[in-house]
Amino acid sequence: MFGIRNKMTLKSALQDLRETTLGAISGLLAKLAYLGSLRRREGGYLHWGMTLVHGEEASNRALKAAHTEVLSAVLRTPISDLVDDLRESSQSSRKSADAYVEGMRQQFSDLLPSPEDAASARHLNSVLVALSSLEKTQKRATPSASLPPQPPAR
User: How deeply is 151 buried, as exposed, middle or buried, from its count of CB atoms within 10 A (0-12, 13-18, 19+)?
Assistant: First the structure.
């Protein structure tokens, strides 16, 4: 009618979070660590951009829902796939995979959207312990590239 139309589509806070913020993060474990980093000690989440656009209540609901979704995805993912995901997640953080998983273990309580969920806590703990152990084993099993090749045994 007036010749100018706004083609902006309105997204829910959760859709915005999934597509924009989490879409820019490589790796499930990196997404989980990121969402954990937004948790406040007193409860809820702090993401100033989401709060500015969607309001505090909608942002908190979306962040908790996304946090729960990502944790569920991590817990459903086979450990062999999580080993690859750990390498992808750690690479973007410029940390070794071993240091990355240890950092996650140190912020363990923040990784849980609901601290009362004992089953998820035990499951996630076992996943992180397994990833840490696999990374340490892999490091010991991988020969150093700086060592010269050994001559064949005779």
Answer: exposed
Helix, strand or coil for residue 113?
A: coil
Tokens, residue 92: 């973007």
- Under a CB-based contact definition with an 8 Å cutoff, are residues 19 and 53 in contact? no
Per-position pLDDT tens, the chain of length 154: 455 554 455 789 999 999 999 999 999 999 999 999 999 988 889 999 999 999 999 999 999 999 999 999 999 999 999 999 999 999 988 899 999 999 999 999 999 998 889 999 999 999 999 999 998 887 665 555 555 556 666 5
| Euclidean distance between CA atoms 101 and 84, whole angstroms | 12
DSSP H helices in 55-106: 56-76, 79-93, 97-106
Phi/psi of residue 144, each to 5°? -70, 135
Give the 3-state secondary structure of residue 12: coil
Q: Which of 85, 91, 83 is nearest to 32 (CA)?
A: 85
Q: Tell me the one-letter amino acid at 42.
A: E
With contact defined as beta carbons under 8 Å apart, do 86 and 38 qualify? no
